[in-house]
Amino acid sequence: MSTSKWNDIIRLQRECTRLKKENNEYRQQLSLNHSNDQQQQQIELLRQIIFLHEVELLDSDSGLRTSGSRRNSGRKRTSKFNQCESKDSTDSDIEGVSSPPVLRNRA
């Protein structure tokens, strides 16, 4: 075999080795990108789940506050400590002051 053919074979082997290495690097990068895309999708899904739970929590919290307000709105304190009696729909929390019509309609 001539020296030039031998050199061509060695050059082609090196080129083949380089291309295999480059191909492996591209595959690894593609795999990482695919993994990153999946992670980003999972993160976005978790963010949406958290957001929905926050909304539900806020709704339930406001519902608790509203029901607590309704429960206590039908009572007013009397002169006796910690005793309550039913409030008339025209009564207000301040003695001698009538509730506005909007509040009377709700009571």
Characteristics:
107 residues; mainly alpha
Structural commentary:
- With 107 residues, the protein is mainly alpha-helical.
- It has 2 domains: 1-73; 75-107, no CATH class.
- 72% of the residues lie in helices and 6% in strands.
- A two-stranded antiparallel ribbon has the order 1-2.
- A hairpin with a 6-residue loop joins strand 1 and strand 2 (84-86).
- The longest helix has 71 residues, at 3-73.
- The chain is rod-shaped and about 95 Å long.
User: What gyration radius follows from the Cα positions, in whole Å?
Assistant: 38 Å
Regarding quaternary structure, what we see is single chain
Low-confidence stretches: 102-107
Instruction: Work out the strand percent.
Output: 5-15%
Domain count: 2
Largest sheet strand order: 1-2
The total of beta strands comes to: 2
Structural class assignment: mainly alpha
Helix content: over 70%
Measured between the Cα atoms of the first and last residue, the distance is 107 Å
Q: Choose one word for the global shape.
A: rod-shaped
Mean pLDDT: 75
Q: What letter string, H or E per element, gives the SSE order? A: HEEH
Mind describing the biggest β-sheet?
2 strands, antiparallel
- The helix tally amounts to 2
